[in-house]
């Protein structure tokens, strides 16, 4: 059954808008070429989208061309303002952008252990409001949040997790109340994987695993281009993975004794002390990451080899089950280790597993979670605004 004229128009509009998102400003002629639509149909959709305030003329294509056929059409960037948050146990970072992702303002605030739940939530919400005002955004359309912990696949909400501050869960509801914006939340490791897939180390991979090495340990699994969350939202919780070399076994409420006890930040600080690796305290990164960075710069081979041994144990378990072909080392420690740590881990995996696996260092570093949260916010806003 052929589509009705109104359905056909909606399909054509969405196709044109997606192309303008992906390619940037285009002429009507370029839209005709890329869509395969007729010239009159393209002219109609350009007129329709312009009248709806979704696109506008943003320039001309080349100095030699003049007239209607040279006009470049682009998405109206200030149609909506977005915010992305990276929520950590020690603070919050926020960036506010327009609909196309151009950064208009950004800020961060530390939140110490001494701050009560109410105070921590208020600090974070105030930071978002102040940054939005600085960006000139009267209203935020969509807010994307990256946070540690499990996301309930049924509700999309951050679940109560042991070891995480109560203010993390309260923050989502507070932003929803105060901002009157659409609030989306996702696990930080999953968002880092999304960012690495779009614009980072996994840009050429449909299937890969991102291994997050930071204060805690986690993984994000992307199979055939799709992020996998699992039945309860717990895919990638490898901090709970039972591994050799620890003093016990993890439990349902604590990952002590699991892979976390081998490769988490506290374990790495202890390991560095064992090999005499030192680093001055840094206000810009956690102590474990500073120690790994110092080891890479100082060629502390024994420490790096021991660390690679530990990381490879967890990575090998994931590879044996999923065969992803690629593992990206991310998080503060993965970033600090860079290509040096990645090469050592790959060498060990080559000996441990018959499944060929390339190990890559994150190319987005500490900004991966914010970038992933922004991508989530952009896609959510554009789906709603462009769902014609």
From TrEMBL:
Under the heading Gene3D superfamilies, the entry gives: 3.30.420.40, Winged helix-like DNA-binding domain superfamily/Winged helix DNA-binding domain
Q: Which residues form the HTH marR-type domain?
A: 16-65
Q: Name one GO molecular function term.
A: DNA-binding transcription factor activity
Concerning PANTHER family, the annotation shows: BIFUNCTIONAL UDP-N-ACETYLGLUCOSAMINE 2-EPIMERASE_N-ACETYLMANNOSAMINE KINASE (PTHR18964:SF149), ROK (REPRESSOR, ORF, KINASE) FAMILY (PTHR18964)
- Species of the source: Streptomyces flaveus
> What name is this protein filed under?
Transcriptional regulator
* Protein origin, superkingdom: Bacteria
SUPFAM superfamilies, sorted: Actin-like ATPase domain, Winged helix' DNA-binding domain
| Classification via Pfam families | MarR_2, ROK
Q: Which family does it belong to?
A: Belongs to the ROK (NagC/XylR) family.
**Coiled-coil intervals in this record?**
none
Its organism's taxonomic lineage begins at:
Bacteria, Bacillati, Actinomycetota, Actinomycetes, Kitasatosporales
Cross-referenced InterPro entries, in alphabetical order?
ArsR-like_HTH (IPR011991), ATPase_NBD (IPR043129), HTH_MarR-typ (IPR000835), ROK (IPR000600), WH-like_DNA-bd_sf (IPR036388), WH_DNA-bd_sf (IPR036390)
